[in-house]
Amino acid sequence: MNKWVFIKGSQGFTLVETLAGLVIISIILLGFFSFFGQSLLFSSKAEDSYSSTNLVDKLVHEVKENDAIENYLQDYDGPALGCDNGQAFVSLPEDEAMIPGFDMSQLNLLSDGESGDYYYRLNNKKYVAEFNICQTNDEKDLSLFRVYAKLKESDGGGSSDMIHYLNVK
Question: Cα–Cα distance between 132 and 108 in angstroms, integer?
């Protein structure tokens, strides 16, 4: 007795039908995989953006709480300088020696001795810090100084910046 029973007209899938099914499934899976790759890239960029924004906020807070900077600005009685004409009153780290008793390490920044950059390191990335302090005539009348802080990724990626006012009198 024959164990294999064939039903008349039933021949199963042909090779062409099987290959067509595999191509359709491959196209669908390729779409899903590209979606996951794009979402991973987007979440990585969002994390970098949030990190640099939080770090620039931390930098502004450190400047605001620094006694040497506050004392220097309180004692300053010169003309309003910068802001309006694009020049900075104090530009750090370049003008670090201009403020008595101030050192960039007081802002909890790391120092790169070769390039002279001061930076934060987070998520295996280096965020280079720079900031300017300036004052317009209107801000001088109100005893305000404008702090413009900027962090940029050393690898040429994104950057974050923030403007904050210091009331020193």
Answer: 17
pLDDT digits (tens, 9 = 90+) for 69-99: 888 888 888 777 677 666 667 888 788 888 8
Report the C-alpha gap between 45 and 16 in whole angstroms: 44
CB 160 within 8 A of CB 55: yes
CA of residue 100 relative to chain centroid, distance: 30
Burial class from Cβ neighbours inside 10 Å (0-12, 13-18, 19+) for residue 155 reads exposed
Q: Render pLDDT for 52-70 as a digit per residue (tens, 0 to 9).
A: 888 888 888 888 888 888 8
Four-residue CA torsion sign, 12, 15, 16, 19: positive
- Domain positions in the chain are 34-167
